[in-house]
Amino acid sequence: MKLYYAPTSPYVRMVRVAALEKGVDGRIELVDARAEGNDTEDRNPLNKVPAFVTDDGEVLIESKLICQYVDGLAGGPELYPKDEAARRRVLQHEALIHGVMDAAVLRRMETRREEGKFSPWWDERQKRKITLGLAQIERDLDAMVAAPTIVPITLGCTLSFMDRILPDTDWRADHPKLAAWFAEYDQTPHMRATAPAD
Ligand SMILES: N[C@@H](CCC(=O)N[C@@H](CS)C(=O)NCC(=O)O)C(=O)O
After folding, report:
1. Is the CB–ligand 1 distance for residue 9 below 6 Å?
2. Is there a common fold for 2-71 and 84-188?
3. Which of 2, 104, 129, 139: CA 20 to 30 A from 29?
4. Other C-beta atoms within 10 Å of 16: how many?
């Protein structure tokens, strides 16, 4: 199996932490998507990482789908519970966290526009998604991280990435439970093993 990656991508990191949790990381070859001859568009018309190629040659895109595939590769902790109601809750929490992540990425991209093209209206919209999303996560945190599902993995990778790309956003001040949880989670072996080099 091959995982096409970019070193700083938080979406790739989610897949890598998931593979470590399942104990299948040794079966997955990491391939630098930016290396010569590795045109990402050949595998993914959306030109995004992660992209994943199974042993049968099937190409999977979208980190959430790839994580579900990885979950099915081995026993151990169910990253996506089989019980239908529990699974739906996990997917809902995962979607909320991805939404916060996507908004953070869009904010970051907005700051990269050429001089005079920055849109305060668009930036404010993304900021509000992050504010309301984090508030809900703070409220629901206990339930979200109670079991070793994909949810803590997604949350840890998202908060770590926010610290990298939006260092001026002091999310810790308004979310003390989340801050305390992340301080510990960020030091777990699988997070440390996948931390991007600065
Ligand atoms: N929803 C996608 C997001 C993937 C994504 O946006 N990846 C970024 C890297 S962090 C990318 O490849 N961006 C290139 C682009 O959008 O052109 C997922 O969860 O896999």
Report:
1. yes
2. no
3. 104
4. 22
pTM of the predicted protein model: 0.96
In whole angstroms, give the CA distance from residue 106 to residue 126: 7
Q: What digits encode the pLDDT tens for the residues 131-160? A: 999 999 999 999 999 999 999 999 999 999
Inter-residue contact 47 to 55 (CB < 8 Å): no
Residues 6+ apart with CB under 8 A from 12: 3, 5, 6, 49, 50, 63
- The number of the ligand 1 atom at minimal distance from the alpha carbon of 62 is 20
Domain ranges of the chain: 2-71, 84-188
**Ligand 1 atom closest to residue 61's alpha carbon, by position in its atom list:** 20
Report the top-level CATH class of 2-71: alpha beta
CATH code for the domain defined by 84-188: 1.20.1050.10
